Amino acid sequence: MGTGKRDQKAKRNEQWVKGTAVLRDSFVPAKVKAANLAAVDDRWVLRNRYLNGASPSDMNLVIAHLAKTFIPQVPCTCSSPLASGNSNSSSMTTPPSRHSHGAQYYSPMPTHTVPLDLTFALRDDATTTTAIQRPYFAADLDETTSIAEYASTFRSALRLEHEELMRLYEKYSLMHWQLSRFNDKCAVIHYVGICDARPSLQISDIVLLRPKRPVAGQTVDHYGRLVPAPYTIEIETRILSIVRGYRNQADQIIIDWDLTPQQVQALNDPSWGRGYSMRFIPASTVLERSLTALDWLEHSSLVQRNELETLLFPVSAPVVKPLTRAQMRIMDNSDGVDRQLNELQSSFVRMVRARTLDPSFGSIRPPMILTGPAGTGKTKTLICAIVDVLGLLQRDEQRQANTNRVLICCPSHAASDVLTRRLSGYLKQSEIFRLYDASRHSNTVPDYILPFTCQSPGTGAFSLPSPTTWKGFRAVICTCMDAHILFRANITNHCIRAKRDCFRSYLLPENNTLGVSFGNVTLSEEIFFTHLFIDESAQATEPEILCPISCVVDTQPGGRKVEIALIGDPRQLSPRVYANKVGDTLGRSLMERLLRRPVTCMGGGEQSLLGPKNDSRDDVESITDLIRYYAKIDGQEQLTIFLTKNYRGHPSFLMMPSSFFYYDRLTSAKATDSVSHNYWCEMLRKVEALSRPVSCPVAPDASVAFSVSESLSQIYRQSTWPIHFRGVRGKDSSVGLAYISGTESWQNIPEAEAVAAIVSTLIIGGVAPKQIGVMSPFRGQVMDIRNRLRKLGFYDVNVGTIENYQAVEQDVIVLSLTRTNADFVDHDVQRRMGIFRQPKQSNVAMTRAENLFIVVGDPSCMWKDPCWRQWLMFCYRNGLWFGSGPKEWDEGIASNPLEGVNYVSTLDPTMKVDEGGTNSIAVVSTIEKVLRIHSA
């Protein structure tokens, strides 16, 4: 074959690999699509019910009742424009009419509902993401200060995201599937791998079932006789619960199956075999609640537009009175919680305290921001700030006089439960309320959380407490989305203030025409929620964060304004989105957008707190001028604090993350226990014995000690650093055909075998299975590793994706990178999955371990990623690389990776990284330099 033909064939093969079916969008077969779009004679909509027997209407009744009775119901006589129900007008042209305090008036905006389009995902123009016909105009959120543009952008993005979810859910369609009974009211669908699907099914998602044959029925003929009349039906029900299969069993989807006797009789006809065609439709709860928050934003902006613009688009720093020496102390003769904190952590507590003691009565201040890497004590600092705000360490009389009340929200239930547990050590049980939606079953809630919840006596479903109970709550904790329940129940600063004004006006003698006496009734002038703290805020979308903000913002002039704080790390995982077009809107949190704004109050006039836009390092002169994580005004921190002291894991774990993601500013503050450290080093020797140290074409000279100024082409063995890299030349393969997890499910059998061997060695050596965590960026690999470990009897080993390990730490972390084909990395980046060229994913993966960090991956694929190439160089120069080297070494294409390399002691902002496979710069962090010198 000639050279030209060989080149053409190679080009065709390359095009086939990049366009292979496993990388294309999933599709619904024509036969399934035709069956799902066919007309039906009847639709059975089963009663929307929860697994605990309650109905959503039960929660709605509680919300409606609470909205009316939170403050006694009286005829309204005040002349406020809000009291007339016309809050859009600035003045009244007619006298106010008396009205009762009903939910219709006190809901600032009606709850948004989205009509259900069950055929959208099956239409020909909606089979791929690129086929979206409707225009999508997104404003530049970094530049705009218009609430109208802001709301319009997110409204369009939310709809695109929901439509993409509908398309992705279609790949779970099933033909001729059987149901099994769970009980008289529920049925079960057995589905392999559904718990590891992406996106995963959620409670309240819709399930559409069509019997494969018409069901039996009867009709009256023209003679008046009953004759058989089969007819086609579609059953619409909802998911009540999802249970992961145990010991290789299929996962279970429990659905509502509350049929009438007539429906049961029709379905029991044995003639049609009881086979179903099934479709899954995502619930619109997130979309509806987010759209409602955006409607509230636009509605409220008509009253006080400037206040909300100050909150969302800050342009100047707030003016706060400095704390006096007496105010610097929390309680007499003690520094209180300040003794537990370092300088930067105490700075955030003082910032919150200064705002609390000098509240704003004019306009809403920009949010306070606490950010920092994993292990720097963000949650501990948050707890101390809440304790300080509530005066929990003050004397009894001072604590009783404290009227502050906080609303604490997180994107996830797990993070909310953690805060509930930690606050329970400071607050009484009656002072904490953990809010759950009624759709959540009590069996899924930890036992230690249940005492802080409210459950209906009859059904056990989660509900809302009575109005008399709310006054005793000091802290209300919920997810950002569940804060919408407070909004519907009118438990917001705006509604409570408006009702209080009406009630106070009614008590005046000239208005109390009925002569009703309420005795010595006193109404506090304080706002209900004085503070809003949002933890893990970097993982929440902006519309999601607007849900709790709508509960605390009161734009009434002259009243006390709420103080808002955002806590999280924008350099870790971002909000999870699936539509490619909305990555710059929904895929970026409010915290990250605020830190990106080039404003005085956020970055002291510099480009931003997160560095140059898009992390371009070409336009700055030095690392000093590149980034400032917190601003000081007159020596007092006013807005942002970045934590730099890390208390998690061995200092060697911070070397590469500090340089890659935090501009080499992290320091280790963990006290090393020599006994424990020696134990984990002994476990590391057992793992190292499974393979050989990597061999290189150029033999290094290990006699030269480390120095940044010297050549680093020699290996300097670090036997006390609990890090291990195992090079494995495997092959990634798609499992989309074997499971329903989708085309993004990949597995690597050689890596899975290596991980199983490493975990077995550790457990045999004495490590408890629950101390070990295994992670992979792909769900297919997670499933494979989990099955292998279960076959070995290791059921307590935590195996999950990188997203599952956000805000989680383990003694041992074993990371399987899985990907070996660099041609697929572009596809991974487009779908926001994998770990290569995904800095936030890499950051989370590198910062989860406490005592031992093990990475298993293909060196050739890693070498083509700038971040992981630096990590390989780090492992090589410290003697931590075992197993296989890049295949280029065997082929003679590459030699010693450290020969002829230039070194920098930090991440130089002007350095150029060649992504083609060669590199002329190696990053050496400050922590590595210090530890190497001390160990020399």
UniProtKB/TrEMBL annotation:
Pfam families xrefs: AAA_11, AAA_12
Superkingdom in the source lineage: Eukaryota
Start and end residues of each DNA2/NAM7 helicase helicase domain: 368-439, 519-577
Record domain DNA2/NAM7 helicase-like C-terminal: where: 637-859
Biased amino acid composition, Low complexity: 82-97
Region called Disordered, residue ranges: 82-101
Regions that span the bilayer: none
Matching PANTHER family: DNA2/NAM7 HELICASE FAMILY (PTHR10887), HELICASE MOV-10 (PTHR10887:SF322)
The name this protein goes by in its record: RNA helicase
Organism: Discostella pseudostelligera
